[in-house]
Write a structure and sequence with these properties.
- This protein is α/β, with parallel strands linked by helices.
- It has one domain: Alpha-Beta Complex (Spore Coat Polysaccharide Biosynthesis Protein SpsA, Chain A), CATH 3.90.550.
- Strands 5-4-1-6-10-7-11 form a seven-stranded mixed β-sheet, sandwiched between helices. It has a two-stranded antiparallel ribbon with strand order 2-3. A two-stranded antiparallel sheet has the order 8-9.
- Helix 3 crosses helix 5.
- The mean pLDDT is 93.
Length: 237
């Protein structure tokens, strides 16, 4: 079994949309969270989807699931105070109903420019090698600076930007998230950081540079422009 674990429990404090969480902002009339889930809904290898969502927006999300016929959404849980807690709750909901060797693809609800190839590559990598992290090559020069003065110019040949999905066996997911809480960690940046913290190897999956997370208003406008290009190509094609 393969499942998508979509976490969308944040309020989007860095967006300029004061009245609407960023996961519900629309592009071409469809909320970002639906655009994201649709990739997992349409993928033939994904069996079920777990979603953590803002508690006060849960009813609205349930209506979206019905409206857009997101039939693979099997678990809907309340998001937590941190991204880690939101991911943990969604993972915990799936554990009791899925085999231990289930592959879980943990993905941001506001990262809607994923594609089917990335999902397939994550599943294959986990099954053949082990935990996987989607990443894309850094094409810019990277510098390290503790203040205005540059401390170091880093060689970019081996540098990548971490993206999502970040994928692993469901049994491993619940193990590292339970262990993190037991050790007092409640706000880890992502699943990959927990995997490394607890001694697991990580294997890289190539992702497109367009697979951005919508964090700021600028990200939203970039994403919308990308959707506009896709729509024009479909109409023209």
């Amino acid at each position: 079994m393969n499942i998508g674990v979509i976490f969308a429990g944040g309020i989007g404090s860095r967006m300029s949309s004061a009245n609407l969480p960023k996961q519900f902002l629309e592009i071409h009339g469809t909320p970002l969270i639906v655009h994201t889930i649709q990739h997992f809904q349409d993928h033939p290898e994904i069996d079920r989807i777990a979603v953590s969502i803002l508690p006060e927006w849960r009813d609205r999300f349930v209506r979206l699931v019905a409206r857009y016929e997101l039939t693979k959404v099997h678990w809907i849980v309340d998001g937590g105070a941190t991204g880690q807690e939101s991911r943990h709750r969604a993972i915990r909901a799936a554990v009791d109903e899925c085999p231990d060797d289930t592959v879980a693809l943990i993905h941001d609800g506001v990262r809607p420019l994923i594609n089917a190839q990335v999902i397939s590559d994550n599943i294959r990598t986990v099954r053949e090698l082990g935990p996987a992290i989607t990443s894309t090559k850094f094409n810019e020069t990277i510098v390290s600076a503790s203040s205005v003065e540059i401390d170091e110019v880093l060689p970019r040949e081996s540098l990548y930007v971490a993206q999502a999905p970040q994928s692993l066996r469901l049994s491993t997911a619940i193990e590292i998230y339970d262990k993190a809480v037991a050790e007092g960690e409640h706000d880890s940046i992502d699943t990959g950081s927990l995997l490394r913290r607890f001694g697991h190897k990580l294997f890289r999956v190539d992702g497109p540079r367009s697979n951005i997370k919508i964090t700021t208003a600028e990200d939203f406008y970039i994403c919308r422009a990308f959707f506009d290009v896709l729509e024009r190509n479909q109409i023209g094609g």
